[in-house]
Specification:
- The chain has about 140 residues and is mainly β.
- Helix content is about 5%, strand content about 45%.
- The chain is built from one helix and nine strands; from the N terminus they run E-E-E-E-E-E-E-E-E-H.
- Strands 1, 2, 3, 4, 5, 6, 7, 8 and 9 form a nine-stranded mixed sheet that branches.
- The longest helix has 5 residues.
- The protein is globular.
Length: about 140
């Protein structure tokens, strides 16, 4: 089985620096590409979010994709309430994870098609993390 190498990105938490402590934020990043009407897209860096049920695609990424739209749903994060939600389309899109040497078999991701670019590209569980073995060492 081929292993796709992910990247751990560490940055100083600027908000926490007000406490006069040096704390860090860690993000797990993956390279991903999507099936378009003309083949595969260029690769993009995505945040791997183990708490997200669905992946999230910013507006600039999804119009050229072969997306099977399923329903309009609210897109919410960890902040509860309607003031922190966006309307988005739940869809399925084909994708691949990749690194410098390998690429995964095609994955059928369940994604939220965001109506804005003010959201990050996120890889969630449905169709991605539930199909892969995530190993951190």
């Amino acid at each position: 089985m081929r292993r796709i190498t992910l990247e751990v990105h560490r940055t100083v938490d600027l908000e926490a620096s007000r406490t006069r402590r040096r704390l860090f934020l860690y993000r797990l990043l993956a390279r991903v590409r999507f099936r378009t009407l003309r083949g595969w897209s260029d690769d993009h860096v995505a945040i791997v979010d183990t708490g997200a049920p669905y992946s999230v695609l910013p507006l600039s990424l999804w119009p050229a994709l072969r997306a099977e739209r399923l329903a309009e749903l609210p897109l919410r994060g960890i902040v509860p309430g309607k003031s922190a939600e966006l309307r988005a389309d739940l869809a399925r899109v084909a994708s691949q994870l990749l690194d410098a040497k390998w690429f995964s078999p095609a994955l059928s991701l369940w994604v939220m098609l965001a109506p804005t670019d003010q959201v990050p590209l996120i890889l969630g569980w449905a169709g991605c993390l539930d199909r892969a073995k995530l190993v951190l060492d």
